[in-house]
Design a protein that fits this description.
221 residues; alpha+beta; ten-stranded antiparallel β-barrel; 47% strand
């Protein structure tokens, strides 16, 4: 007797999980510290990281930050030191991971919230998409023991509409580096460099991993 299949195959119904280890490649992933594997591995779970950031924005960057308000304000136009920042990471339920950053800048009643989702694109590559629809196709790789994300192109996604954004109209190439510092701490660096206007944004800060010793976590705040 032939048994009929009552359940569809997993590949037909389940979203593809974000597997950065595969995108980085076996050799590069092996060179990354175990703490980075835990923070970025498949199924790493929700976490909140606390730290302080240095924020820098050029005059051209401030123009882009103002324009980005049309798309959920994914860019901060603030230049300030030691900005209390929290980063909440959680599964979006569709295979992607949400990174929600809260900048508590002086004088603001509420924090500036920047939220984006890292997910697999239609081509199988890495895509980071903001709530407002602005997205970046990313290369992800290991470099000198750090995990690096670097933008290749920008796209505006509005429903089913996909609009390619010319590079000259963007804030520039975005490069994010995650460097493990040991003792439960890591450094986050973001730089955006425009082909004509140079550095438009720079963000850098040290964060504590909640999986570390509580004394280490308090020291980063």
């Amino acid at each position: 007797m032939t048994r009929s299949l009552t359940n569809p195959l997993p590949s037909q119904t389940e979203p593809r999980a974000l597997d950065l280890a595969t995108l980085v490649g076996a050799a590069g992933w092996a060179r990354l510290p175990a703490a980075v594997h835990r923070r970025f591995g498949v199924g790493h779970g929700a976490a909140t990281y606390a730290g302080r950031m240095e924020l820098r924005c050029s005059p051209v960057g401030r123009v882009h930050a103002l324009l980005s308000r049309l798309f959920g304000s994914p860019l901060s136009g603030v230049s300030s030191n030691a900005v209390p920042t929290s980063v909440r990471v959680f599964d979006d339920g569709r295979g992607g991971m949400v990174w929600e950053r809260r900048f508590h800048t002086a004088g603001d009643r509420a924090p500036h919230v920047v939220r984006s989702t890292k997910q697999l694109g239609a081509d199988g590559g890495l895509l980071e998409r903001t709530d407002g629809g602005l997205s970046m196709a990313l290369d992800v790789f290991e470099e000198r023991g750090a995990l690096v994300f670097e933008s290749r192109r920008f796209t505006l996604i509005l429903g089913r509409l996909r609009l390619s954004v010319p590079s000259l109209l963007t804030p520039g190439t975005c490069r994010v580096t995650h460097t493990d510092l040991g003792d439960g701490l890591f450094r986050f660096d973001l730089d955006m460099v425009h082909p004509l206007w140079g550095h438009t944004f720079h963000q850098s800060g040290v964060f504590a991993d909640p999986a570390a010793d509580p004394a280490v976590t308090r020291g980063a705040q």
